[in-house]
């Protein structure tokens, strides 16, 4: 049983954020009990991530963040101290690595859950290298899933759709930043200049996208010269981003053993890949109920320019390795590794929980 006196870890997330999905998947995969880590929602659309109190937790103003009590003392009389882990990536101490190590198959102290605690860290040096490469690729500039979301329109009709979807979100984000900037001017205790600069830069970056999206419902002929120029530049950036993601896919393909990144066993890299692929699939018009072959087809069509992922993975083998029925599967049928990965991942209770309300 967990001791109510013990300080708990808090995980700050936003429900529609891609990188929040990674530690949420990890919590399920590691068998953490529901009361072991407090989940705190940070509403990015309301600018909750920019408030001075959240910036004290994570000065980057991003989710996810895991705040863990330092285990220097377990004495409830002494105020517990906390440290924040601000990144999902594996470059230093990252959130998923921390969650992985904190609940091991051997230690079942301070836990309310009897669920198994599989090790998610890769088992060999070669696997660590492959896993890190995959995680780096997924977090690279060329693979940036948030960038691909903001740049998910390469013609007028796609822009109209994207605009209807995101103008309210961006408008409310700007409003939140304005309130913080204005509020600080009149406040008795002011925030640092660095924080004001941070808010102003976030405002500029958000405004640059909103500037293009706010006119999204208009046809090209209704735009003035400056708006037309902005739209042209946006399309140029969008085409280039969606062109460059082909290379990320091909490099990932080379690293994947299948059906999971490192073969039969789920590891840290799969949690990043699951979140990334879910986002790419969503941006390509897929839904959570689509199977692996369907999401691959939709992604290929959306990336366009004749893009095709190699179909070199045995369907029967993929299903056998993921513990799925292999009845009526022709032995020579092949599919993309991403399709096999998707079908394997979709069966897991972690995935079903995180994507219960559809892809994000
Ligand atoms: N490198 C960070 C990236 C986190 C990140 O980009 N988070 C996004 C949501 S998925 C965010 O908080 N964006 C808020 C903003 O930029 O306003 C990680 O891997 O944790």
UniProtKB/TrEMBL annotation:
This protein's source sits in the domain of life called Eukaryota
Protein name according to UniProt? Uncharacterized protein
């Amino acid at each position: 049983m967990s001791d109510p006196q013990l300080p708990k870890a808090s995980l700050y997330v936003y429900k529609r954020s891609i990188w929040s999905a990674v530690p949420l998947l990890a919590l399920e995969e590691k068998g953490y009990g529901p009361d072991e880590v407090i989940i705190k929602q940070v509403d990015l659309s309301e600018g909750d991530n920019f408030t001075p109190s959240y910036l004290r937790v994570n000065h980057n103003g991003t989710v996810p963040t895991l705040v863990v009590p330092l285990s220097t003392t377990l004495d409830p009389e002494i105020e517990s101290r906390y440290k924040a882990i601000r990144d999902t990536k594996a470059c230093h101490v990252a959130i998923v690595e921390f969650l992985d190590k904190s609940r091991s198959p051997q230690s079942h102290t301070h836990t309310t859950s009897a669920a198994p605690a599989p090790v998610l860290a890769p088992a060999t040096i070669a696997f660590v290298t492959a896993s890190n490469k995959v995680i780096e690729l997924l977090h690279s500039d060329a693979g940036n899933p948030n960038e691909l979301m903001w740049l998910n329109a390469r013609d007028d009709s796609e822009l109209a759709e994207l605009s209807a979807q995101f103008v309210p979100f961006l408008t409310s984000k700007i409003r939140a930043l304005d309130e913080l900037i204005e509020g600080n001017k009149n406040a008795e205790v002011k925030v640092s200049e660095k924080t004001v600069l941070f808010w102003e830069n976030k405002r500029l970056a958000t405004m640059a996208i909103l500037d293009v999206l706010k006119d999204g419902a208009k046809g090209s002929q209704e735009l003035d010269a400056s708006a037309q120029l902005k739209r042209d530049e946006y399309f140029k950036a969008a085409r280039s981003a969606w062109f460059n993601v082909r290379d990320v896919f091909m490099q990932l393909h080379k690293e994947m053993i299948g059906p999971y990144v490192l073969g039969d066993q789920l590891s840290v890299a799969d949690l990043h890949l699951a979140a990334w692929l879910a986002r790419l699939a969503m941006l390509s018009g897929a839904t959570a109920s689509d199977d692996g072959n369907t999401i691959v087809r939709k992604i290929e069509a959306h990336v366009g320019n004749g893009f095709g992922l190699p179909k070199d993975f045995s369907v029967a083998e993929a299903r056998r390795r993921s513990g799925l029925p292999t009845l009526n599967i022709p032995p020579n049928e092949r599919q993309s590794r991403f399709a096999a990965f998707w079908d394997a991942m979709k069966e897991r209770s972690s995935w079903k929980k995180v994507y219960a309300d559809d892809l994000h």
